[in-house]
Structures are given as C-alpha cells and as structure tokens.
Amino acid sequence: MRQVRRLGAALVGLALCAALGACGYGSQRVGTTAKVMPTGAALSASEVRVGYFPNLTHATALVGVREGMIQKKLGGTKLSTATFNAGPTAIEALHAGSVDLAWVGPSPAVNGYTRLGGKGLRIVAGAASGGVKLVVDPEKIRTPAEVKGKRIASPQLGNTQDVALLHWIAEQGWKVDPLSGRGDVSVVRTDTKMTPNAYTSGSIDGAWVPEPTASLLVAQGARVLVEEADLWPDRRFVTTHLIVSQRFLDRHPDVVDAVVAGAVAANAWIAAEPERARRSVNEALRELTGKPLPAGIIESAWPSLTFTDDPLAATLEAQAAHATAAGLLDRPVLRGIYDLGPLNRVRKAAGLPPADDAGLGTP
Hints:
Strand content: 15-25%
Protein name: ABC transporter substrate-binding protein
Number of helices: 14
CATH topology of the largest domain: D-Maltodextrin-Binding Protein, domain 2
Keywords: Cell inner membrane, Cell membrane, Membrane, Signal, Transport
Distance between the termini: 62 Å
Number of strands: 12
Helix content: 40-55%
Order of helices and strands: HEEHHEHEHEEEHEHEHEEHHHHEHH
CATH architecture of the largest domain: 3-Layer(aba) Sandwich
Radius of gyration: 20 Å
Structural class: alpha/beta
Strand order of the largest sheet: 1-3-2-4-11-5-12
InterPro entries: ABC_SsuA_sub-bd, NrtA/CpmA_ABC-bd_dom
Pfam families: NMT1_2
Main location: membrane
Number of domains: 2
C-alpha cells in the first residue's frame, strides 16, 4: 500500500513539477508581463531595471509589474524586468549593475550587505511575510521529536529557510554541522524544483520550504508539522523585501520613490482584491515560466502569506542572529541596511505612520 501511495504521489508530482520549476535556484530571465507602457515625462533616469522571482512570495512584484502599478508611478521612465530563481544570483546582478532594484529574501540581503562593508545596497520596503512550513512524511514523522534522525530538505546552504531549519533544530537541543548538514538531523540541501521528486522517491522525509512548494508536498501526501509563522511574535517575519543598489539610490531617488509607490499600490490591491490578485499572479507565472500553478495549490498556499509594506526590520535582525548562532555568518553589523525614506514619503502622503527600521536605518 505504501508503494501504491508513493506511485500516486509521484504521478501528482510529475503533473505539477513543471509548474513549480520557477521555485528552484540559479537561473535568470529577462522579460516582462507588464500591461502598461511608459507615458509622459521621464524621471531622472530614462529606464529602471528591477528583478524578482517568479514565485508566490514575490506577488508584490508580479502584480505591480503585470497590472501596471509600478509603470504608472514611473510615468515616462521605462520599467525593465529580469526574473531570478536564486537570491545570490539577484544580489550579484545588483552589484554588477544589471538590475537597479530587486525583491529578495532576508539572508541574501544580509550577506550582500555585509560582503561589501555596508556600501552596496539598502532595503527600502517590505513585501511579504510568512508562507514557510516544515512539511513531513506522516508515516515517518508524527511529532517534532520524530524529526531526529530523519532527512529534511532545505532549499540551499545558508538561504533563509536553511537558517530557519538549523535554528529550529538547535532549539530542539540537537546538533548539526551547518556546512555538511550532518548530525542528529540530516539537512539535505535540495533545489526546490527538485524537492517534490526527492520526497516522492523517499530520499527525503520532509522539507522546510516556502510556498508553493509546501502545498505541493501536501498534495503529494505530506502534512504540515511546523508553520514558521507560529515561531515568531505576532506570526510575522520577513520573507521578501525590496532592495536597491546604493549607487542607483544616490543618483535617482525619485525613481526609487516611484518604484516603492508602485509596490505599495500593488500590496493595497492584493489586500483589496485577493481573488483577482491570485489570478493575476498565476497569469504572470504562466507568462514567465510557461506553466501556471494548479488552482488547488495556489489556493492552499495563499492564506499563509501576508503582503506588507512593513519591512519587519526587527525580524531581519533576529534572522541574522540565527545565522550567526548556526555558524553560517560572522556577527554582522546591520546598522544602515535600511533606508526607509522612500517608503515613508509614500506613507506620509497617504496619511500613514512611518515604518520602523528597528534602529538599523542609515545614520
């Protein structure tokens, strides 16, 4: 019976895995799904290049580009886009000047910031919170204690979910070598595009992964053991935020303000029109990857995500501390990683209070 269930799960995985190929790591694609063309006078730059992932946790960017919120704020300045499947790849593109702004997760932003001595980038707005889960094989793991001795996947050595998994393991009192992944739990670094097949083949017993991979695994018979939001105060922690090249911010603050204003408008539309937003995100995924997500997967994944302008700065500092405790990062100096001037100008114009940088803003 177990083999029959595995076969059924494998067939589900084969049917859906292509739709989730964008959840993996390591590639870049130039293109756009925007419906709106530049009109009117350009700002201080004739073009701005933004990067993001074709993934649910980047819905702010997917909606902001496809529905034209960002281009409308830019006026005659042309919006160009590039999509990535890896935070480190996006950071490299930002440092190389291939993109000017990018939506990325917290660990790549911290690594990129510290690597260049705090001179390369700034976080200018939040984007997403939540949407990360530990899902497991219910025939092997029924309680958190039974994770010990099992093989649990994370997307990439040192990425945001890898750090969270290592921190959770340490909280249980278990030991794992952070680089090799060997120890009381075997941490198996697996591209998320390969995780469904790894699960159905039995080579892993679970995974600490973002959506929609978590919901895909549930569709294959896994169950949610831990929702990461439950481990954070108020169930809020940064999953995705918007960063900018310091060079571009210094030269074109008006353009950065416009991109942030478009992102804020996108988040407001997502909150006001969740069904239309899900359809827009899925259509953007289809256009960018050639495959939409199955309706059941996106509907299962969506409720665990919150799209927010708040950068949740205090949780970034906590995540950096977790990476340091795990042995993946020297204790970073994060003062200056945020410049919330662009966001707070938008919020002030809307009659909203300023966002908090938790003391990590530019001096």
